[in-house]
Amino acid sequence: MPLLELRGVTKYFGTAPKLVHAVEDVSFTVERGEVVGLVGESGSGKSTLGRLALRLLDLTSGSVRLNGESIEHLGQRALRPLRRNAQMVFQDPYASLNPRLRVASIIGEALDAHGLAQGKARQARIAELLELVGLQADHADRYPHEFSGGQRQRIGIARALAVEPQLIIADEPVSALDVSVQAQILNLLQDLRYRLGVAMLFISHDLDVIELICDRIVVLYLGRVMEIGTAEQICRNPQHPYTQALLAASPKPDPDRPRTRRLLQGDIPSPLSPPSGCVFRTRCPLATAECAGAVPPMRDLEGGHAVACIHDSRSIDWGGMLQNRKNDRVPPC
Ligand code: ADP
Ligand code: MG
Questions:
Q1: pLDDT higher than 90, residue 289
Q2: Does residue 6 lie within any of the structural domains?
Q3: Any ligand 1 atom below 6 A from CB of 39
Q4: Looking at the predicted structure, is the pLDDT value of residue 121 above 60?
Q5: Torsion sign, CA atoms 154, 160, 166, 168
Q6: How many domains does the chain divide into?
Q7: Nearest CA to 136 among 147, 149, 127?
Q8: What's the CATH code of the domain at 236?
Q9: I need a surface site. Which of 24, 156, 203, 312 has the fewest CB within 10 A?
Q10: Which residue range is the domain that position 104 belongs to?
Q11: What pLDDT does 31 receive?
């Protein structure tokens, strides 16, 4: 049984005729201990999906199962014990920590909410959590403003881990940090993942970051899944033109190659009126009349790799950008 299972998850905001199609018919799973990446441009529905997975938002339709139990119809009370299993880490470590509370209270609140530790044991647990994320026990007495951005994100991670969740939903956890600090936080998450066996839904607009830390990757565009596969399948053998465009636009620095250029024409269409059929067709080099007719079903390839495209994307000329990437890459861990 998967730890998290999304089936046909759909979320519209607003009311007709001004409906925002934020997430449409999304299905995938996160297995125990697995790190699944959710990648796509800004506005593709990643944060909405992360919030739906925890029922921080109500679904328009579809189902979310956590440990096999449907959570889409549960009330707030019934959700509470399930919430202990799944915790959120946010992008902005400045905004997500209460500036008036000491670190001990910030982490302690999470313990108290689930009645996990009192007195000396609570204090010891807070110290243990701080050390787990690379901080020091005596940091517990300080306030958030006394820490750097990377340290604050460590506090946010310690708070999430306090309840020993099976799943962490991390929404752009390193996007607000300097590149060098990003690497430290990614290393920390990788380390925690192996030490604690915690699963993650790791959300980022940056495919390079996603590739570093994820076992499997879900590629979203305008609220829909374009492609799903292992990190290796997605990054070394991408089959959807959109995935290929994302990869071609973010080559690793290479002095012999021209700098990144813009490869996709035009902007993302408005989610108020997404294109009929394949939502990517208005920016796709392979689009034909058929693409406007029906939403392409997920087509199964080898080894769990699946793509929502009716065409053969091998014919697209990305100007050597994909090839370059393939040759440069070390296999993802
Ligand atoms: P991402 O995280 O990939 O950038 P979001 O999930 O934040 O994407 O947003 C997906 C779409 O849903 C966007 O068009 C956004 O404007 C819209 N949206 C998100 N939240 C709301 C809301 N509360 N009300 C109306 N529209 C929303
Ligand atoms: Mg977002």
A1: yes
A2: no
A3: no
A4: yes
A5: negative
A6: 1
A7: 127
A8: 3.40.50.300
A9: 312
A10: 28-59+76-326
A11: 98
Q: Quick one: tokens of 286?
A: 């392979």
**Of 13, 226, 270, best ligand 1 pocket probe by most atoms within 8 Å of the beta carbon:** 13
**pLDDT greater than 70 at residue 268:** yes
Q: Is residue 248 part of a domain?
A: yes
Assigned token pair, 218: 């879900």
Question: pTM of the prediction?
Answer: 0.93
Instruction: Please write down the long-range contacts of 247-255, taking CB distance under 8 Å and 24 or more positions apart.
Output: 247/207, 247/321, 247/322, 247/325, 248/318, 248/319, 248/321, 248/322, 248/325, 249/321, 250/206, 250/207, 250/208, 251/321, 251/324, 251/325, 251/328, 252/208, 252/325, 252/328, 252/329, 254/324, 254/328
State both tokens at 204.
């980022």
Report the atom number in ligand 1 closest to the C-alpha of 270: 14
Among 48, 203, 210, which residue has the most ligand 1 atoms within 8 Å of its CB, making it the best to mutate?
A: 48
What tokens appear for 228 in the block?
């799903």
pLDDT confidence of 333, banded at 50, 70, 90?
Answer: very low
Lowest mean pLDDT among 106-120, 163-177, 253-267, 269-283: 253-267
Q: For residue 159, is it within any domain?
A: yes
pLDDT at res. 95: 84
